[in-house]
Amino acid sequence: MSLKVGDVAPNFTLRNANNESFTLSDYKGEKNVVLLFFPAVGTSVCEKELCSTRDSMKDYENLNAQVLAISVDGPFAQKLWTDRHHFTFPLLSDFNKEVSPSYGAFYDVWLPDKFALKGVAKRSAFVIDKSGVIQYVEVLDVAGNEPNYSAIQETLKKLS
After folding, report:
1. Which of 26-30, 116-120, 125-129 has the lowest mean pLDDT?
2. Based on the structure, what is the number of domains in the chain?
3. Model's pTM, two decimal places?
4. Of 26, 97, 117, 122, which is most buried, counting CB atoms within 10 Å of its CB?
5. What is the pLDDT of residue 111?
6. Residues 58-77: pLDDT tens digits?
7. H and E: helices and strands count for the chain
8. Are 60 and 67 in contact (CB under 8 A)?
9. Active site residues per annotation
10. Which residues is 128 bridged to in the sheet?
């Protein structure tokens, strides 16, 4: 299923490594949301992406945005990685692989030529406005590529 700008974002509830629940609709009317799907903890490009996001958190906060990062890793692996890198935004576990496919952010076939493993999230970025509507979509087929951070920030600026 491919989501596009203008679609209502599928709601979900996922837990972080501290067993805290995060529900997308809880941010409705309050904050814009940046959803970052990433393939796996402990990998170099994912580390670069999430550390870059961590280092830019003031920019996201100034734009009234909540960042949520989602992978299919278990909460214990996410906890170790969060503690190691001091992430200041939630890493959410889609261990049952329900949310990633609903956003079209999931490798369901083996693509060895694209550095992808079957069964993990595709690196993707979605900006969801306060009313729950998707305003930016970027689903990357090549796991080694990073999202366009400038485009994400520009979208958020337009929503401010």
Report:
1. 116-120
2. 1
3. 0.93
4. 122
5. 57
6. 999 999 999 999 999 999 99
7. 5, 7
8. yes
9. 46
10. 33, 134
